[in-house]
Amino acid sequence: MAQLVPVASLLTGVAGLVGAQQQAEAQRRQQQEVQATREAQLRLAGEEQARQRRALLARTIASTRARLAAGGVSAAEGSGAALVSALEEEGRTRAQAEAKDFALRIAAGRRSLLDEQLNLAPFIRVGSQLATGLSSGVRSLLNL
User: For the chain, what is the largest distance between any 2 Cα atoms, rounded to a whole number of angstroms?
Assistant: First the structure.
């Protein structure tokens, strides 16, 4: 009967390892779903902000061109063209900054690079439990 104790502890350790693996897989899937939802929300918010910025830039450029034309200055030449191109450049710069900010927000959702792909903590915990069970089983066999 004493010889069954190490076998039982080994089977318990293996069952614990399988259970931990299934639990880790379920947690990983849940984290992926939460991350995908968060990314989608951030993407939608970013697209709306970009649309609003483009509309504001178009209104600003149109207003600037109208004021320049009212003052008798051509918006296609000289200082008028420089002003309009500066507004367009500022719009492009802001769009690039928003894209970088979005990428950083998405990346910040993870604690580490291993978090999304492989989390070893459950396996280490179960492995140590299995090692403890095996060592106690070997001790009980030596006590015979």
Answer: 107
